[in-house]
Amino acid sequence: MRKRRPKERIIQPDPRFQDPMVTQFVNNLMWEGKKSVSFNIFYDAMDIVKERSGEDPHAIWKKALNNVMPQVEVRSKRIGGATFQIPTEIRAKRKISIGMKWLIKFSRARSGKGMADKLANEVLAASKGEGAAVKRKEDTHKMAESNRAFAHFRV
After folding, report:
1. Which of 13, 14, 119, 136 is the most buried (most CB within 10 A)?
2. pTM of the predicted structure, to 2 decimals
3. Is 48 inside a domain boundary?
């Protein structure tokens, strides 16, 4: 158990949209410390989104992220020899983090040419309430709903 909470790191806003959440997304997208490559992938994806939708790509990305963020999750807890899946509310920072990671994970799993194209497709799908990342959110919510009977075991 920790003695104290770690100091919260301040994330710098990105150069194009001046949004620290974009930088956080790029940090999650990054592989092997190649941040400039990740920024290029993200900005290329945003250009593709703008080209296909004709709207503000940052607003579409935010909408996609909101559609992917889960509100509840199930946590395993062992009680009297049995393991129960207990639905719990998710704190705000974790919601954002999970949403970003799901968007990136399912973008990588998509078929297509180049990560920017895959990411753009997943963002467009998620902003419309479709796509694999949104499906994962709905599955998580269904699981929490079906285990609502164990909510009184909450930690």
Report:
1. 119
2. 0.89
3. yes
